Amino acid sequence: MYGITKVNGTHFVFEFQNYFVWILFLIGIIIGLIAVFSFYKAKTSVDPLHPTKASKLISGGIYKYTRNPMYLGMLLVLVAAFVKFGNYINITVLVAYVWYITNFQIKPEEKTLTEIFGKDFTDYCKKVRRWI
Fold first, then answer.
1. 6, 27, 35: which is closest to 79 by C-alpha?
2. Which of 22, 23, 42, 58 is the most buried (most CB within 10 A)?
């Protein structure tokens, strides 16, 4: 009754699945909003396409635990969708998201932030993990 039940070989269903989906979704949204608010509060750019606009290095609040809470929040929303649809095959979307964001967004951002903030940013990277 409390375990995962296979349906049609590729789908799963479990008790309280919808509650779990909502919890993951809300946590993802809250993490993302806290991260954006941190940028707003610091009066710096939140534009992920132009990291050169960053005027301050944010390392407090939620950024003490993860360097990329906005992307982590998005990942949790995707995990919620994965659980909602209950399709094992959709795990490839999660893996693809992490791979793509890491290689084509986060790493270029980190390079730019290293150029802007130098040792402060590299020290921050040594203390705080990229994802969690």
1. 27
2. 58
Distance (Å, rounded) from C-alpha 42 to C-alpha 58? 8
Q: Supply the pTM of this predicted model.
A: 0.91
Report which residue type is found at 79. Answer: V
Question: In a 10 Å sphere around its CB, with 0-12 CB exposed, 13-18 middle and 19+ buried, how is residue 34 labelled?
Answer: middle
Q: Which two tokens stand for residue 107?
A: 């790493």
pLDDT string in tens for the chain (132-residue length): 466 666 777 788 888 999 999 999 999 999 999 999 999 999 999 998 899 999 999 999 999 999 999 999 999 999 999 999 988 888 999 999 999 999 999 999 999 999 999 999 999 999 999 998
Closest CA to 13 of 25, 2, 29: 2
The alpha helices in the chain, defined as continuous H runs, are: 17-42, 69-85, 91-101, 107-117, 119-127
For residues 125 and 76, give the distance between their C-alpha atoms in angstroms, rounded to a whole number.
Answer: 22
Strand-pairing partners, residue 11, are 7, 87
